[in-house]
Each structure stands twice: as C-alpha cells, then as structure tokens.
Amino acid sequence: MTLNTLTKGMRGRIDRLPTGDIRSQFIRLGLVEGAVVFCLEKLPGGTIVLEFSRQEVALSGDLARSITITQP
Amino acid sequence: MEHTSDTKIEHKPHKHLRTDALPVNPLKAKVVLVGNPNVGKSVVFNYLSGLYVDVSNFPGTTVEVSKAAYLHYDLYDTPGIYGVSSFNDEERVARDIILNGDVILNIVDAVHLERDLFLTQQLIDMGKRVGLIVNMLDEARRQTISVDLKRLEEEMGIPVIGTVAVKKQGLEEIHQLVSRACEGRQNKALHAELHEMLAVVGSQAEALMVLEGDGIVAARHGIAPADHSRREEIYIDRRNRVNRILQSAITDVQTGRRVASVLGRWSVSPIFGFPILALVLYALYYFVGVFVAQDVVEFTEGRIGREIVEFNIKASVAQHAATTVDVDVFNYAGDVLENRSFRFDNGLSADPVLWNEVRKFADGESAEFMFNYDNVWLVLFFGEFGAITMTLTYLVFLLLPLVLGFYFALSVLEDSGYLPRLATLVDRFLRVIGLNGRAVIPIILGFGCVTMATITTRLLGTQREKTIATTILQLAIPCSAQLGVIAALLATAGAAATLIYTFVILSFLISVGTVMNRSLPGETSPLLIDLPMMRLPQLNNVIKKTSYKTWFFMKEASPWFFIGALTVGILQVTNALEHIMDAMEPLVVQWLQLPREAATAFVMGLVRRDFGAAGLYQLNLDPFQTVAALVTITLFVPCVASLMVMLKERGIKEGALIWVGSLVLAMTVGGLVSQILI
Fold it and tell me: I need a surface site. Which of B62, B199, B228, B357 has the fewest CB within 10 A?
C-alpha cells in the first residue's frame, strides 16, 4: 500500500520512505518510518495534505506514490 | 575532553578552532538569526534591527540576505530553513552565514517543536554558540500545549527564552540571550568523530557538514563528503534525540491534533479551495493590475512624471539649446485636435515671447510637448527616449508604485500563510509544464508586471524551474499594461477573435512548458511543503517588508533601466530604429499579412510593451488581423526593463537565448495564425 491510496479521513503508518535527499527532508520534518499520518485532504490530481504532530504538510501525488504505508 | 552518555551529557565548554569564542575583535561579532519558515523570524529581526536594514544578494546567488547593526554586533537574517544543508539555494546561503556566525539565535515555533528542534540540535551539533527563542507561546497555550522551557534548557544545554513576538512579549530578553548563548549538549560519539576531522577541516561546524554529505563544504577542503547513509544515520539519531527531549518538555492534552482555522482547511479543500483561489486572484488582480497599475500609475506617471517632472527638465535643458518644440493638443477622447511647431534657434530663454505663445497655445487643454533638440547628445539623454528623462519617469513614477503594490500584496499573502496552500492547490496543473506549485506566485504577478515577476522566480527551488518560469513569463504572459490594450482591441474584434486569441496563447503556453519539461535535463522537484497556520498579517511587519524589498529592487534594477533606455536612445539617434522597421517590413506585410505600419508597433513594443499594442489601435485591423497581431505582440519581445532584468537573473547567455527564441516564436506563431485565418 502506498501513501497516495489514503483518502480523506484515513490514517496510515509510514513503512518506507524513498531514498536520497528527499528522505533526509522527511526526517527533518519529523516524518519518519513508524510515524502515523492522517489524511486531511486529497486534491484532484493526487496532491495530498497530511497531518502529523500538529503539522500540516502537502505532498505532490508522485511523491506520495513513492512512500509505502501500513494500517496503523 | 570528557564525553559522558548521550542522554545526560555534562558538556564542558572547551576551545575549538574558529567556532566558539568570539573573534579577537568583538566589534565584528556576527549574530545570526536562524529558524524554520513562518516562525516569526522577520518580526524578531525587525525588532532588533531598528530602522536601517541592508538587503543584498548573497554573493553568487539571487537569495536576498538582510544585515543590520544591533548593539555592537552585526546582525544577519537568514532564509527560513528546516535544517543546515544544501538541498536548495536558500539552504546553501543560510549554511554559509551560519558557518561564519559567532552567535546563533535560533527561533522556534512552540507549536511545532518536533519539527523545529531538529534544526536547533543540528546547530548544537555544529558546536555553535546557540540561544533558543521559543516563539508563539500564546498559540501553544491556545492549543493546550505546555512547554517546559527550564526543562528544554537543561536537556539541550543552551539558554532558552519564551516569546510572543507579534505582541512584542518577551523580546527584551533577547538582549541578554545573545551574551548567554553557549555551546549545547552534543551527541557524544559524533562530537568525538568531528574532533578527529578538525586537522583537515578546520572547524567542527564544517566537519559536521562534511560528515552529513555536503559536497560543497567538502570540496572547499579538498576532501570527499561522507556518503548518504552516514547522513541518514546522523539525522535519525538527531530526530530520536529531539523526540526524547520533547517527551519530557511538552505536555499536550490533545496529543498530535492541530486546532486549525476553518479558512486554512477550506483553502486546500477540493470544493472550497478553487472558489477561494478565484477570489484571492481577483482581489490580487484588482489591487495590483487595476488599482495600482492603472489608476495610481496614471496619476504618478502621466500627471507627475510626464507633465510636471519631465516637462520641466526638458524645458530647462532647452533654455540655452537650439530646439524645436512640437505641441499636440488633444480632446477628451485623446484625438489630436491641433498641432503646432515652434522653433527656438537660441534656446527658450532667448525668445520668451514665443515661449509665452507656446504656453498660451496649450493652455487649459490636455497637451503633449515634444522637445526636439538639435544636439545629438541632448536627444540621447533628454529627448523622446532620453536615457535620463525616460529612466527617471520609468523608475520613479511607473515602477516604484507598481513594485510597492506588488510587494505589499505579496507580503500580505506571505504573512497570512495562504501562499503554501495556493501552491498545494495548483501543484498538479503546474506539474504539466514542469513547474511545481510554488511557481504560481511569479506567474500571477506576471499578469501585473513581467519585470517584477521575473525577479520573484527566485523563490523557485531549482535552476530548471527558474528557467521554465522565466521563459513562460517572457513569452506568454501579457503584463497589465498590455492586457488593457489587448482587452480593448479584442472587445472591438468580437467573441470569435477573443476565443481564438485565448486558445492560441494558452495552448502555446502549455506546449512551450511541456517541451521544456521534456527536454531540459533534470526533473521537477516534488512538492513537499509545510502549511503554516493561517493568521492575520501584522501591518507594521508587512510595511517594513514591503519597503525594504522595494528599496532592494530599485537599487538592483535602476542601472539596468538606464542601460536599456540608453540603448533605445542610441538606436533612435543613429536611425537604427528606422532600419529595423524597414527590415521587418516584408515579414510583417507578407508573412503576418498586416499593414506595414504594424512594424512600428512591434519595435515600439521593445520600448514598452503597451506602446506596441497601443500602436495597433490606429491600424483599423479586421478581427482576424487583430488576432494575428495580438498573438505576435503578446509573444514578442518583452519591454526593455523585463529584458534587462531577465539578462541579469538568468545570465547573458540564457537570457539572450530566451529573448531570441521569443522573437522567432512570436513571428512563427503569429504568422501561422495569420496564414490559417486569413
């Protein structure tokens, strides 16, 4: 299951983040493997708005597709 | 040197090379403000900096850096960053300022400590002297989060103060914080590793950058950076440490949920998001495109600039120089009623009677004065396209109000927290043309003034995106001045013509973007954007931001405007302008199937984009000719000002390529439209 399959109001636990620079950026924001995210909003075209540790973060659809999640 | 366990280190201050103690001359100590985006850094900077702020480009980049005098220190502001590294231009600039800084004031958002303390811990690991400002305590209280500042101080080993910067609460404590700032508790194993590198790298901070895989810092010392996996180890370690600290320092009743404003949520919802976007765009267009670009500029440029300032300068120059004064008198509709020429062989002062006659001829009517000097140099500097008079009018009376209006609107949007939401909403659409959501700002601003918009392409993440956005702006986005003329011409040409014009320009914009997206190396950077809380912008902060950004723009752009005006002046004096028009004639008449006078309109578009479009008024074109002419002129050369700014921002080579490309494409597409339609 990947992050882009989450729909509004669903939760997911981050299982695997993509590698490279973007991975470091996720870690800095506090989005690490094992973190539970809540899907606040899903926009047409796949852009997704997540909530975790009182933050709201938006990701483009292709980025969400590269993150695997599990049921929390 | 002593290292104890990670969680409870007793870190004794000790000497490092170059990083800790104040430099020999304390007068030159650098205090650097560091923080994530939207944590209130600019409010703190404004509080500490007083009136005089020096904004400049960081050497070799287009990132703006503010510097000010504060007590006996040099105070630096840095771009908002999530960590010290080199993922984009802003981070690279911030990294270098931090590396050179003596005292770091780190501002964090009390509501988002999980995110923000990562940077804090990284600064501590660099071995920097750090003071921590926990801002937005009121918001944290509102969200029932309580932050134990004492505990944070103990855990991190650095002095901590709490503030509500927008209400000026607690800010006076910063003065003490600067002198109390010290090295904090570092990761013990990491610290030892960094010290072993000191012989090669020189400072602990730089050693950390090398270990975290920063190729640029490593190259400065002629060594290879550590690989990615080492950085990830350090990052995960640091992340865990921050989370551990916060477990004891934060009590959060609502665990993890955020109290957000309805507006913030709605503005990224698929149902309400787009209507809100439309409303914001309309408000923006109305304020900048109609109110400032038309009403205000008409007064400042038309009345003050041309009729008072330019007239008086030209008349004083003509006092002792041989001049022919042409006067056009207009009626209310703007048609020329009467035209007369007055000859002053020995300057205006030699013939006060005739000068009186000139004034009487134009008295009480709207009139335009043309001073045609005999002397070529006077023509070059004070004539129709005089480098001095044109630059002055252009800069002070046309651009200054526009730029002020733009930066004001941008600052309001920026401080309200709406911009990242806008980027989120349109990301998918901009991705098609190789841009990410952030590019929406320069593109919208382009409909106001392409010159300004070209400058704001700076906020895009990669060079690739800057190139694509600049090209699209220069090619396919008509500025407000031009848009007014286009709208008027299309209104006469009818609905079919309007549809065809819109379709051609839009499909052209998308094609160019798509082609560039496919052909330029690299790929669009993915959107990963933090949505800050929506809040009411602080007026004084907005005004301060607007004024120093405007000052910075004027300082940067002025010489280029002068050079642009001088170039046009030289073309005119040497008759080159005429030759260009003659050379273009076959292209205009045969290929575009327009009257030969249209060539003048195109070339005049170089001086100012709206002059070009305005020249088409008098040609009595049929609807299809109008479409062909408008397509050509929209895609054609941008005005001299935007061309100059583009050359500056994108470099001579790339800028020239975009410029020549736009000339060729304008002619090609305009001609094709004409050949198909007519």
Answer: B199
Determine, for residues B119 and A28 on separate chains, whether the beta-carbon distance falls below 8 Å. Answer: yes
- Which chain B residue's Cα is nearest to A52? B256
Contact between B38 and B165 (Cβ < 8 Å): no
The ranges of chain B with pLDDT < 70 are 1-27, 51, 55-62, 253-260, 364-365, 606-614, 637-638
Contact B82 A23 (CB under 8 A): no
* Of B108, B193, B198, the residue nearest B156 (C-alpha): B108
| Two tokens, residue A43 | 């926009």
DSSP calls for B400-418 = HHHHHHHHHHHHHHHHHT-
User: How far is B656 from chain A, CA to nearest CA, in Å?
Assistant: 33
CB atoms A20 and B236 under 8 Å? no
Domains and CATH numbers, chain B: 26-252 (3.40.50.300), 324-369 (no CATH), 395-523+538-677 (no CATH)
Mutate to test the interface with A, among B527, B533, B534 (most CBs of A within 10 A): B527
- Put simply, whether B425 touches A (Cβ < 8 Å) is yes
Task: Write down the pLDDT at residue B513.
Answer: 93
pLDDT for A33-66, tens place per residue?
999 999 999 998 899 999 998 889 999 999 999 9
Domains of chain A: 3-70 (2.30.30.90)
- Strands A48-52, A55-59: pairing kind: antiparallel
Q: What pLDDT is stored for residue B259 in this prediction?
A: 55
